[in-house]
Design a protein that fits this description.
- This protein is α/β, with parallel strands linked by helices.
- The chain has 2 domains: 7-216, P-loop containing nucleotide triphosphate hydrolases (Rossmann fold, 3-Layer(aba) Sandwich); 235-425, Nucleotidyltransferase, domain 5 (2-Layer Sandwich), CATH 3.30.420.
- Helix content is 31%, strand content 19%.
- It contains 13 helices and 14 strands.
- α8 (285-295) runs parallel beside α9 (322-332) and α10 (349-360) packs across α13.
- The longest helix is centred in the N-terminal third of the chain and has 18 residues, at 61-78.
Amino acid sequence: MKYKLLKAQKEFIEVPHDYSLDVSVYQGGFGSGKTFAGSLLGILLCLKYPKIKGLVGAQTFPLVRDTTLATYFEHLENMGFKENIDFSYSKTEQKLMFKNGSSIIFRHFDEPNKLKSLNLGFAQIEEMSDVPEATFKMILGRLRQHKQKSWNNFCYRLFGHTNPESRRGWIYKTFVQFKKPNYRIIIAPTTENIYLPKGYCDELKKIYDKKYYQSNVLGIWSDYDKSFVVKDFGEDNIRDIAYNKSLPLHLSCDFNVDPMSWILAHKTQDKAFFFDELVIEGTTTAKSIDEFCRRYPDHQSEIIINGDASGDNRSCTSEYTNYMIMKKQLAQHGYKNVQIQIRPYNPPIKNRIIAFNAKIRNACGEATIFISPKCEKLIYNLNNLKYKEGTSLLDLPSHYQIKNDSNLKFLGHIFDASSYLIEFYWPLG
């Protein structure tokens, strides 16, 4: 059977460059042919390159088994391939094998360490936005199969498919914001799939609200998820911000050993400008002050320390509070005008969240918090920090989740540091 491919599918399957590695993601809405294109590409690579080894995976195995593997079998049937003649499938090994020696294993990524011994020629990721960035990077490192002499013009391939992320997370960062020349994102609107029933997308447009339709039909980014802690964070909140040594410098702190999270800001009467962050793993207050002094040795105006009120309590291991350690050490480095402005106790977190949302965009819809691109962890938080479904509790990662994706350890802390400052100067009620 000869396939007539959609424009986006052709773009996805073909490699438009001469690099030895192609990394691509097919991003589309419901019914845009994502799994169809990925499964077809996997088969084509196995047929073209004898003895190539491929991996097909998703975060959970039922998705691989019920969606992706089923689509592989549909393709093979449509191509006229016969099981146990042209190919075979081992249920115990979860492995598809072709008569030319090529093979594909089907796995889930809940336990990524079990994939570390693989040597692959290509890898396919189903529902890529559900997969942690750390797993994506780990799989990239598995593309190291020894090339066969017959593999002319061979290019290692890592390809995935997904609906758009509800916020601009690691896929947007990797494939748009900091895209390498051999990284590609193919946007595939469902509206361009000519094989869908007539009126299919028109019916969806009646059912879905505008943002949900943009994301899940047109395949473009749209902040439709209502569970995000910060509701209206957008591109206009991000801008290059110049540090000024002659202006007061606000240093707002969340004291946590791993990671310690401090945010640096200037402010006016009605605006906050976050120009840098100190997010350091496995450290102490004293070492963090050393890093601050290394970055800003010549600050001339006052330094105003804000942050977590519990940092003003003595610990069982020190006669000094965190704030007194900071003030003492800053004085030793030659900073003379250091003030501490904190509340006597921390306000409820809901107060900080309300205050932060009121400043990220005011009642007129104008941005009044501005964040430098240097504040990567704060931006990561604003793009990813959510409530637990159906509650007003923050959905913070478990130890097990952090073990599988180390980026998750950065959720919460730098937002706390930032929201302490915002709520202190612009409290609501």
